[in-house]
Amino acid sequence: MSDGDGSTGGASPRKRADAVRNEKTLLDAAAAVFVTSGVEAPVRDIAAKAGVGTGTIYRHFPTRADLIIAVYRHQVDACAEAGPALLASSPTPHAALRRWIDLFVDFLVTKRGLAGVLQPDNAGFDTLHAYFLDRLVPVCARLLDAAAQAGETRPGLDAYELMRGVGNLCIGADTDPRYDARRVVELLIAGLRRQ
Question: What are the residue boundaries of the HTH tetR-type domain, all occurrences included (predicted)?
Fold first, then answer.
């Protein structure tokens, strides 16, 4: 999408910014439709949500798999970008960590259908899983470190282990209406507090 050559010219950067914004609108619409209707939702529903024609979606994402992968990456990016913003805007690092974990849980619970389509036997699964880890583990580690430095949580907590634990607590949340993953994860996060 980006040629990265640093070319000059007034129209080109503006066009790229518009293209990025349009793609973000499509991905946000697709994510919202996937949450309510599943990843097999008709493309016309996504197009209607985004306020574009179906041809626009196919121009950006020729196959459903392309769209699903792009939505998944988009949601990972949003979660990753939220970490530093929460750290800057929250009253304490632990509050930022807690709010970020809430976003992470939302991502895990509402995007489980996406992950289900991208099974380990899918050629792109390993790459996508590596992207997920590369983007989110450092953000979680930064939040954990800030909370530990502020004396709010125990030092030496491992971001990957915490994320894996949160992920395991989210399993089944989409199939059992009596199970509230967010409440159980809240107990886990409360347990990180320094006594």
Answer: 20-79
